[in-house]
Amino acid sequence: MADEVVVIEGDGIGREVVPAAVEVLEAFDIDFEFVEAEAGDAVKEATGEALPTETYETVADADATLFGAAGETAADVILPLRDAVDSFVNVRPAKAYPGVDALRPETDVVFLRENTEGVYAGHEDRLSEDLSTLTRVVTASASRELAEYACEFVGDGRGPDGRDGFTVAHKSNVMRETDGRFRREVLAVAEERGVDADEELMDAFATKLPLDPSQYGVVVCPNLAGDVLSDLAAGLVGGLGLLPSANVGHENGLFEPVHGTAPDIAGEGIANPTAAVLSAAMLLEHLGHVEEGGRVRTAVESVLSDGPRTGDLGGDATTEEVTAAIVDRL
Amino acid sequence: MADEVVVIEGDGIGREVVPAAVEVLEAFDIDFEFVEAEAGDAVKEATGEALPTETYETVADADATLFGAAGETAADVILPLRDAVDSFVNVRPAKAYPGVDALRPETDVVFLRENTEGVYAGHEDRLSEDLSTLTRVVTASASRELAEYACEFVGDGRGPDGRDGFTVAHKSNVMRETDGRFRREVLAVAEERGVDADEELMDAFATKLPLDPSQYGVVVCPNLAGDVLSDLAAGLVGGLGLLPSANVGHENGLFEPVHGTAPDIAGEGIANPTAAVLSAAMLLEHLGHVEEGGRVRTAVESVLSDGPRTGDLGGDATTEEVTAAIVDRL
Ligand SMILES: CC(C)[C@H](C(=O)O)[C@@H](O)C(=O)O
Ligand SMILES: CC(C)[C@H](C(=O)O)[C@@H](O)C(=O)O
């Protein structure tokens, strides 16, 4: 049976890089059924809703979704979509590619970010004229599920350089009950599974990653810590332009470049499709097409090292030229 | 009347760098009354309490406190001490010094971190076998007080290069009510005071700071954001070894190096006293000895550029030799 893949371009350069990624997917002899759906600023403008119910349901019922970017409405789109695919982990590799100018070229870290709770569970109240509160949520079950995933991830040799352990980053010296629980459950699962795990306070991690990224491989974090620390890693590899991500669910997944809509260059056909194409590679792997995913990655690395480049990487190629080069080298 | 300054060495290299900082303070013809007090792992070992009530009260009643570092008990010591001095802002300058190896030598950023609430207000509950929660707190009053301080700070020309505006970093797209309030109140105060303020999501800030630190000067943040983002800046200037901080209260203050106890080198007399000495400079300024504070800073910069260096900076000088050189150049 065909895999149903929902395609949501969204706003800005999402409309350019998502078609590029679809072109790469179509280059394989795989039976995909692509379904277009809408979300983002433009559809909100038109209908009043950034994420139409129809889109939510289409995504929830599909096998996987490829998403581009949304503008002002990003949070209104992406947080419910993560929920639609029942995602419990956000996989965010941050790798410096040969030939790309990076502050720390040795960076090769994969963040496994908890994707359902923490401050994102988001029960907020305005208790008085002066006082607002937010209830941050941590459960043993979500922490353990993330840890099980991390153990399988490193067990399968998917960590950078096949590293077989991981680091838990947290702030349990201040959030003793909540991050204390997160830390304890994650380390307990690692121990049960015989996986090496060490830990780092998230503030110390933020100091140490720029000083020496090679000391880290797979990093397991609560939701907001994963958001901030993976974006920090993006700064070390040269920006968000090349970074893919996977919101992995139990039987579904949502794949998106980490970058935004880049309004300054949107519509010109010069956006870098790399992050979207690498997100498509993660989608392929998630659907079991592991060999094809690897081929996309290899083609992307080859083009980055000596192929045409878009303006963000100092070249003057168009999105279409870079995409054609990637397809050519598959 | 003499200014009463409490001196808490704490653990590890705190016992070496705090005496060095006191030596610098004593070099001035200022009438200080130094009072020794205890806190940290060692006193916990001996008495069962990391922060004896007597220490808390001595600190609360003094004009200022110079603190070194605490080991495992850091949070048990430092969080109540911030409360003892009634601190509402943690001032954390992160500057790369000439002659010191830094990933981003152009970094010169001062973080003004909210110092009383956010997740540090810390109401945590274990609601079930599975579920723990933390209530994050944001008030308009604390947000506005921080913003007033920031406006005065830049108005007084204390921002890097005399910059007259600031950036608010927050995560209001997710924490809409709490960080929404923080952001709104801080920007409103800036507008009332005619101070330029722009804003950045904290995750975007974490990407952009390493890419180009020169775009930021004074950064105003909620408590945990300030913790993590200032530690990130530390990684760009070469580590925590040189960074001072000031916990500023209404009529009191607590001054501490950002570094920890450095157990690997503690007791050898080779710790770098710079961060503690620069914290003493902030203490001097806080007590109105602005000219003297400036002289300490200038002497430190001079020694860093061509004076004796401790091992962390590639030299082989002792703590005492570096301190003597600083005193010599005052
Ligand atoms: C848009 C925003 C809600 C989102 C997040 O905070 O998760 C984004 O920063 C990301 O990391 O995908
Ligand atoms: C020790 C810890 C509680 C403290 C904090 O989180 O504030 C430390 O990281 C700091 O930044 O001074």
Automatic annotation (TrEMBL), chains A, B:
Pfam families: Iso_dh (PF00180). This is Isocitrate/isopropylmalate family dehydrogenase. PANTHER family: DECARBOXYLATING DEHYDROGENASES-ISOCITRATE, ISOPROPYLMALATE, TARTRATE, ISOCITRATE DEHYDROGENASE [NAD] SUBUNIT ALPHA, MITOCHONDRIAL. It comes from Halorubrum glutamatedens. The keyword GTP-binding does not apply. Residues 4-326 form the Isopropylmalate dehydrogenase-like domain. Belongs to the isocitrate and isopropylmalate dehydrogenases family. InterPro entries: IsoPropMal-DH-like_dom. Keywords: Oxidoreductase. The keyword Oxidoreductase applies. Coiled coil: none annotated. One of its GO terms (molecular function) is oxidoreductase activity.
